[in-house]
Each structure stands twice: as C-alpha cells, then as structure tokens.
Design goal:
With 557 residues, the chain is an alpha/beta fold. Helix content is 56%, strand content 8%. The chain is built from 25 helices and ten strands. The strands form three sheets. It has a six-stranded mixed β-sheet with strand order 1-8-3-4-2-7. A two-stranded antiparallel sheet has the order 5-6. A two-stranded antiparallel ribbon has the order 9-10.
C-alpha cells in the first residue's frame, strides 16, 4: 500500500532544502493571470492588516514524493508555487537590506551546502520550455528589474508572458509599500503562512487525490492526465520532443478547445456514444491502442494531425490548390448550429480525405444537411449522437459518401419541410440559423459571415399591430394568424429590437427601422423587402413559396 502524507508546512519550510520542486513536462504551462496573482497578494495583505497571529493557509499542493527524498513532482500547485516564487523574488530585489536580500534569495534558490552535498539550484524548476527563462529573470538575484523591461511579443511561450505580466502587476503594488511594510509581509510569510502539502510516492494515487480536492489552483484536465501517461512512457529525448509537439497543439487550439478535441477523438475511435466520463473511457478506448510501445505514434499520428484539423474546422482555414473556398463555407455554416456533435465526422473527413477538396465538398454538404435537419427538427442529444456514431462506423467500414446514415429519410425530409414552412419564428433556437442560410443563398456569397455585434430576427407584419394602423386594413385576424411567424414575414436586422418601431406601418418601418444609416440593409433577405411598395397577403404568399423553395433545393427536401 502506498504511503500518503498530508501535513501543514510553513512557507519557509516549503521553500527549503526539504523540497526540490519540479513541474513535469506533461503539466500544462503556468497560466495564472494578473487578477489571480494580485488576488493572492491582496489576500496576504488583508491578513497582514488584520494583525492576526493565527496561521494563514494558502491552500494545498499535491506532490509525487517519496518519504525521505527531496525530489517532489508537482501534480497540483504549480500556479501557487510559481506565483509565490515571483513574489519572493520581487521582495528580494526591492529590499535595501543586504541580509534580508540574502535570506529571501535562499527561499528562491538553494545556495548549496557541501556538508550536506547539496548543489546550488532553483527551489522550483518549471517545465523544460520555461525553466531557463524563469531561472534567468526571476530566480537569479537582481534580475526582476530586467524582467519587467522585456517586451511581451519577444517571449517564446504564453507561460513566460504570464510571468512577465504578473511580475509587473505585483511589483506595481509592492513598490508603493514602505520598506517596513514589505518586511512585515516577509515575516508573515515566514512565520505564519502555511500550505497543506499532500504527498504520495505513486503518480496514480496523486492524481486520484488531486481529483477530489478543492484547491485554489487551476485544475488539471483529463488531457493533462492523458499527457502524463503518454509522455511518461517515453525516454528522455522522445519525452521532450513529444511534450513540445503536444504543447504546440494545445497552444494552437487553446485549453478549452484542446479539451473538446479529446472528447471528439474518443468518438472518432470508439464510434459510439459516451457512457462514462472521459477520464475512464479514453484510456480504454483510445490510449490502449498506443500504450505500451506506441506512445510517440499517438502524439505524431493522432494529437498533431487532429489538432491541425480542428483548427481548420474552427477557423474555416482549410487550404488547397482549388476548392478550399467551398470547404471553408461548409465549416462556417456548420459552426452556426447549436451543438458540436458533428465535429467527429468532420475531423474524420479531414484526417482521411484532407487532400481531396472535391470529396470534402460533397461530404460536408451532406453532413451540413443532416446536422441542419436534426437542428431544425430539434432532435434530442442521444438520438443525434447515435446517428453520428452510426455514420462514423460506416465511414470506418469504407462506405464513404454512400454511408446510409448520411442522407435524410423521406420521413425526415417531410418533417424538416413542415418545420420550415410553419411558424418558425416561435422556435427561438433555429430561426436565426435558417434565416442566415437563406440570406447567404440570396446574397450569392458562399459561407458569407457578418461582423455585427447584434443580429436579430424581426417581423415585417407586426405581432401586435396598434389600433387604427394600416396593418389591420391589409390583414384579417385569420391572415395575421396564418402569416405573422412564418419565413416570408421575417427579416434580419443588425440592431437590437425596438418595441415601439416594431409597430410602424410598412413605409415608415422600411425607412426608419429596416435600413441602416445610408438607407440600405446589410442583409439580402431584408433588402428584398425594401423593394416592395406594400406588404399584403399575396406578397407574403409568393415570398414564402420562394424562400421555402430555396431551402428545399439546397437541402434536397
């Protein structure tokens, strides 16, 4: 049984020769922002101002550390330990007292001890890509002034930029303090500031402990755990090489999208709906194919190419000698749907047919049709994901564009058409999507997108015409009930709704509400309405038939 230890440790013992902290390469980079760093100092300052004598706890850290050994691999607590090191280094370089400066420097770096056979070294070693930078500009005495003069755009990683920003912010506060006040803070840190240090010699045990702890740091994600399994299975050179590729992929996507990628990868490999949490299913359904023995292949053949495919989908940034515009237009359309369950199929397509834009154009067109139909019909999550899982199994079996789960059934076509021809305004989630697709068709610009802060759906014939308005002369109650919420009566606006203007008569509504500053509308769908001199049931009927017809042709309904 692995021995677990949890104890309250004062900060001057945490930053001592009892611990040689190392951030493993599989950990995500240092990422605390200025607000979090300043909040740490604010909390300490408030405790200082209270003049309290009781212990002040900064939270907990989780380590892989054998009893009696100083080597400590940080599983949780990197953000706090790094920020505290920056804080101590700034206090060291700000003080005018040489003895205090030396004392603080000993908390930041191990000075070495020949009797105890200790070599000089930093108390905390960051990940490989940032360790040298951190040692040069933070842990070396007198270097934080140079750090603060660096230009952010010249730094190599996001972690280094975070160190720079936080050092500047903390320095701005500390520099305004008197020497005496800074000394009070240092003494508080040394005498009555504690961390709860949880240590176990076993990595899996440390991860289990971490997963149930509610700490102040930024949580490890499942992808960090998977990275530890992959990188930990490699020798030193391969580990460094793969860690760099992994981190490049994570930086390209951003942490949230990188986490989503692994959810999609599970689906691509398992080709079935998730039944348990990713932390349990991914090792069984995906990693088991690469561990042991093929860890580097997982990084090179899965993480890197699929991350690249994800960026192309998200940013509509597919490139090819010809045909790229059509492919990217499909990505833009799919992005407007209110779920990302279609992502695994799109990732599979890019991974397996990325060099064939014509195939991608055909497949993604069919995929958007399927996704749009399920969106419009409000198909629930379980049957929706099951449909995509069936499609992935058929693709994996080599059916390609002939996969039977890709086209719509006659029943699905009929239901989609009925929804489109009904009171679509009342379906809040889908109406904007459908109108933007129509607007794109009318504009003749594939994948057109608008850079508006607000896009709203508005009625031409108002929902509640005021008494005496011309609307009540042109439309009976029955006709208003028939047409008010249907496609033919709807337009897109690049402004927030105006309850008063909604009830204008048609001519005034066109002039004052439906047009921009120069008397025109951004949207082709709305511009067509502006061409009419009156708005009557016959106009609506003709417009309804045309708009629905466009969608029928586009989606082969």
């Amino acid at each position: 049984m692995q021995q677990l230890e949890a104890q309250e440790v004062s900060l001057h013992k945490v930053f001592s020769s009892d611990y040689d902290f190392r951030i493993p390469d599989y950990q995500r980079p240092y990422a605390w922002d200025v607000e979090q760093a300043v909040q740490l100092l604010t909390d300490l300052e408030e405790s200082l101002d209270r003049g309290a004598v009781e212990p002040y706890f900064l939270g907990s850290i989780v380590l892989v550390k054998a009893k009696g050994d100083t080597s400590a691999e940080v599983i949780d607590g990197q953000q706090r330990l790094t920020t505290l090191t920056i804080l101590l280094a700034l206090l060291r370089d700000l003080t005018e007292d040489p003895d205090l400066r030396n004392d603080l420097d000993k908390l930041v770096t191990e000075p070495g001890n020949k009797v105890r056979r200790l070599d000089p070294k930093p108390r905390l070693t960051l990940r490989f890509r940032d360790a040298g930078f951190f040692h040069q500009y933070v842990q070396t005495k007198g270097t934080t002034d140079t750090l603060r003069t660096l230009k952010e755009e010249t730094l190599a990683t996001d972690a280094q930029k975070a160190v720079l920003r936080n050092a500047r912010a903390l320095h701005a506060t500390l520099a305004d303090w008197s020497e005496e006040r800074r000394l009070d803070l240092v003494q508080m840190l040394g005498e009555r500031t504690f961390l709860v240090v949880v240590s176990t010699p076993d990595l899996d045990s440390a991860h289990r402990i971490f997963s149930v702890m509610n700490s102040r740091g930024m949580d490890l994600s499942p992808t960090d755990i998977f990275k530890s399994h992959i990188i930990g299975a490699l020798d030193e050179k391969a580990s460094e090489r793969c860690a760099r590729k992994w981190e490049d992929a994570e930086e390209a996507l951003g942490r949230d999208d990188f986490a989503d990628l692994f959810l999609h990868l599970r689906m691509v490999f398992a080709m079935k709906r998730a039944e348990r949490e990713l932390l349990k299913e991914f090792p069984e359904q995906v990693l088991s194919r690469y561990l042991p023995g093929k860890a580097e292949s997982f990084v090179n053949d899965v993480v890197v190419p699929y991350a690249d495919a994800y960026v192309q989908i998200r940013d509509a940034d597919y490139s090819a000698a010809s045909g790229a515009e059509q492919v990217n237009a499909w990505f833009k359309r799919l992005q407007q749907i209110d779920n990302n369950d279609w992502h695994p199929a799109a990732l599979w397509a890019l991974h397996n047919h990325g060099d064939d834009p014509a195939w991608l154009d055909t497949f993604l067109g069919a995929l958007e049709r399927l996704a749009a139909s399920m969106f419009i019909r409000r198909v629930y999550t379980t049957p929706r994901v099951t449909r995509y899982a069936d499609l992935l199994r058929e693709l994996d079996a080599g059916h390609g564009l002939d996969s039977i789960s890709l086209p719509l059934t006659d029943t699905e076509k009929a239901e989609t058409l009925a929804r489109l021809d009904g009171d679509i305004y009342l379906v809040t989630k889908t109406r904007r999507y459908v109108l933007l697709r129509l607007d794109e068709m009318l504009a003749g610009q594939p994948g057109v997108s608008y850079d508006h802060n607000v896009i709203t759906v508005e009625h031409v014939l108002p929902q509640n015409p005021k008494q005496g308005s011309r609307w009540l002369h042109h439309f009976t109650d029955e006709q208003r009930g028939q047409w008010t919420h249907r496609l033919g009566n709807l337009v897109l606006l690049s402004r927030r709704k105006n309850a008063y203007a909604q009830n204008y008569d048609f001519a005034e509504k066109k002039a004052k509400y439906f047009t921009g500053r120069h008397g025109v509308s951004t949207f082709a769908l709305t511009s067509q309405v502006l061409q009419h001199q009156e708005w009557a049931p016959t106009v609506l009927q003709k417009r309804q038939r045309r708009l629905v017809g466009l969608l029928v042709d586009e989606w082969n309904l």
